[in-house]
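ok trying again, last paste got cut off:
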Amino acid sequence: MKILVRESLLAILLVFSAHGLVYFLLAVLPDSSFSGLGIYAGSQEALAQWRLSHANSYATQFANLIHGDLGRSLDNLPVREQILDAALISAPHLAVATVLIAAGVWLVGFKGVPDRYGELLANYVNFLPPYVAISLLVILSLSVAPLLTAPTVVASVALAVPPLALLSAQAYRITEENLRSEHVRMHFALGASTTRVRQRLLKNLLYQLLPSLHNATLALFASLLFVEVLVGIGGLGSLTARAIKRVDVDLALGLVVFYAIVVAGVHVTARVVRAQFPE
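nice, full thing came through this time. structure:
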């Protein structure tokens, strides 16, 4: 109970900190910074109007956030409703991707992979910067799109690949280290089969992967931004891309809050579940 309260308070702090940081960056960054990001003059005018209407008003914005009011987008629609509608569209793809990720990690942990492929995957994920890896993996996934006819399948597979690569690489490394431990060698010496040993190691694998779940969630959301735009699905990724392109500040801030809540929720859940494991 104590860890749940502590982690929940930290999660709330994370959400408000993310919102405040993005708010102040938008308020103080020079226009040249937005030009460097590829944001056009028309969008800069929208940003200038937002800065003028929100001058010295973060206290009001903070109070609205506490009451669940995320403001209105440039289309004069409630931000909260737009995010919830987009989340409902993205939810099936995210759910299927999550199942694919869980199945892939289970296969790596229980069945194993050839050493040369496991090492290649682990080295690839560790070497490349996160967003480069995500971009390459998403492009690779979408390259098989002509072979598939259902956008849901294409989106789900493409979404699953980056976090699956991240967690599978860790699962491979963790399992290989566990298989070389003295405790496991003793089980092999007593006649235990590899399948039986790997089955017993799955609980330990879950314990060691739990701290990485929020990173996998970030990878999932990052790939969502690429996949939905490329496949043409009007979910959270497309909504985020539209908010960035138009500099729809209230919508962008609302999305930051939504993503922060989900990532913080995953982190809290992982910490609470991990605390239930015996040391």
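cool. The mean pLDDT is 76. Residues 87-246 form one domain.
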